[in-house]
Amino acid sequence: MTGKLDWTGKRLKLDVGPVAHGGHCVARHEGRVVFVRHALPGEVVLAEVTEDPGKGFCRADAVEVFTAAEGRVQPPCPLADMSRGRDRCGGCDWQHADPVTQRELKAAVVREQLQRIAGLDREVVVRELPGGPLRWRTRVRLAVDRVGRPGFHPHRSHRVLPVADCPITVPGALDGVTDREWPSGAELEVVADGQGEVHVAQREKAPQRRRGKRGAVISTQVEGSGVAREQAAGRNWELAADGFWQVHPAAADTFAETVRRMAAVPGGGVAWDLYGGVGLFAAVLAEQTGPAGSVLVVESSRRATEDAVANLRDLPQVSFRAGAVEDVLADESLPRPDVAVLDPPRKGAGRAVVEAVCARRPARVVHVACDPAALARDVGLFAEHGYRLAELEAFDAFPMTHHVECIALLEPVAPGRSREA
Ligand SMILES: C[S@@+](CC[C@H](N)C(=O)[O-])C[C@H]1O[C@@H](n2cnc3c(N)ncnc32)[C@H](O)[C@@H]1O
Fold first, then answer.
1. Nearest to 293 by CA among 352, 335, 323
2. pLDDT tens-digit map of 32-57
3. Which superfamily, per CATH, for 11-72?
4. Cα(408) to centroid of ligand 1, in Å?
5. 291 lines ligand 1 (CB under 6 A)
6. Across the chain, which distance is largest between two alpha carbons, in Å?
7. Domain ranges of the chain
8. Which residues contact residue 373 at a Cβ distance below 8 angstroms, ignoring those fewer than 6 apart?
9. Tell me: the pLDDT tens digits for 176-195?
10. What is the CA(174)–ligand 1 centre distance, in A?
11. How far is the CA of 323 from the centre of ligand 1 (A)?
12. Among 2, 144, 146, 304, which residue has the fewest nearby CB atoms (within 10 Å)?
């Protein structure tokens, strides 16, 4: 009988193959797949195995590069330096690639996910947002180590690497945060809003006797008003600082413009803004419908819905439902939309929501997605209901990380008629 295979700690010389979803590349060694971080396609590296579940694959970090790819650069962040071995920050995946290479890697991932999951062959270009690859991040979550120092986790680890600054974060956001002591085990959420105000919330697990339910957390606003002020789509926005807003300063405007162009709701028409947050896309859709049309915002967070109501109070054509999209769409009396916009969380919209949208046969569906695998799954589901991917835009809204935002336009293959009909 053979024991469980475990290569953890072993060093392997690898010919690095293509990029894969999640910020790593694929290599093969003795018949097994190795997901290797801090490497680039085409390189030859020495990699240390960091995790081995004992199945057909294991995970490794490059620790030395024998043959470098053309796009390799010295990481601008000291926490991404190869000499740190397993003590590299898990927040960034592509610090060792130049910005053009990063976008090519992301385009390859989107292309591969669409091909493998949705069966679509499609060229993908990932566009740069203004501002460059550093100093763009306006929202940061830090963990606090056992002696009270804030920092970031290495990839797939609970250890905390203390930090003084983070070069992808907007200047000044971490001043007064990383140079003081915090309660051990706390989590800090730092938000630098569009007006330059910094909001810091400290989260701690409630003591056992105060926990009303499992996992209860006490949140304390330790800096800032807790109300973020932003500008996008030609409007001013106010929202709970810990509520959802795009992290890159140029993202909200860019995505709203793309949604505007793809949605093209007719004057007097009906639009849905599903997973609407504080109403960013609803504002754009309401401009298109005009006062004679209507826009329905569906959002599960009560606080975000309250903020949306306040932000869009000058647009009477917008109505709001606070609830889960899957529950709200079960209401068959909802007016049929000309256009449905979906901006679901990472896991995507899923079968029930896609079916509920397609049952109303909108002329256009605009799908905003922060995870290409979830997008590909949803695109596949839309295809089952007779909707084809008519257009795809992809944006590098998260430079240095593996994340990429996609906005897809889906249209009925046969307008006004389902494929099954
Ligand atoms: C990616 S954000 C998009 C927000 C908004 N479209 C924007 O661009 O600012 C996803 C939003 O969906 C909400 N959400 C998550 N699951 C939901 C569900 N099942 N039903 C309705 N809303 C949901 C979250 O609270 C969050 O506001």
1. 335
2. 999 999 999 999 999 999 999 988 99
3. Nucleic acid-binding proteins (2.40.50.140)
4. 17
5. no
6. 75
7. 11-72, 91-134+248-421, 139-229
8. 21, 113, 117
9. 999 999 999 999 999 999 99
10. 27
11. 10
12. 2
